[in-house]
Amino acid sequence: MKYIETNSLTDVPGRLLEDGDRFSFRCYPGISCFNRCCRNLNLFLYPYDLIRLRNSLGLSSGALIDGYTDVVYREGSYFPSVLLRMAENEEKTCPFLSEGGCRVYSDRPQTCRAFPVEHGIYYLSATGQSRLVHYFRPPAFCQGQFEETAWTKDSWAADQEAVFYNQMTLEWADLMRLFHKDPWGGEGPSGQKGKMAFMATYNIDAFRDFVLNSSFLKRYKVKSDVRLKIKSDDVALLRLGMAWVGLFLFGAPSKWIKSVR
Asked: Rounded distance, CA 121 to CA 123, Å?
């Protein structure tokens, strides 16, 4: 996911895919470049990616973060980025790549799921809304782009079971847009507020414990149906976490949560 700052979407590298535009692509075992795209990646992971990977691998959120990711602070950004840590081998392969292909394929991250389409977030200042934009951008080595199977951005997303991933990415982008301003009051994202915000969005297990076993539900009003869901529904808990970060740091109103006055 990339934020796009431009006066013309056609100036961005790749072919912009509008509704109904078609592109050709097919990937399968036996194609000459099979799995070549799973090497030496700067692969950003979003909160919903971690939920799916955590469940697929049978790990806690903390173990997944510690064992498989790098949390990096980029210049000019007020919230850390989470990247998948490549294996320590010569080709720096994805840690989930096996001889037979991806071993977490059904729960692969959104970036992998979308390939060879790249997503960007285009913010419309006039309306205050964000929308996903889509570009067909396979690497030069990709032979799948020369196959005959044709897709639209929507049919490809449906085929790859990426529609809900895209929705969660857009919700995440709306929160990240607020971090264009520094909310930390001088302590930086590695301070106590930053640790709490990171926990609420990326460490779903720690956040669930915090919500259910602290004074959180006395200090914040959460709708009754949401309170029931968050005990076992990771997506509901993530959405509550994102809403709480927006409220906690920026005072952003939300239907999910309100401060108790």
From this structure: 6
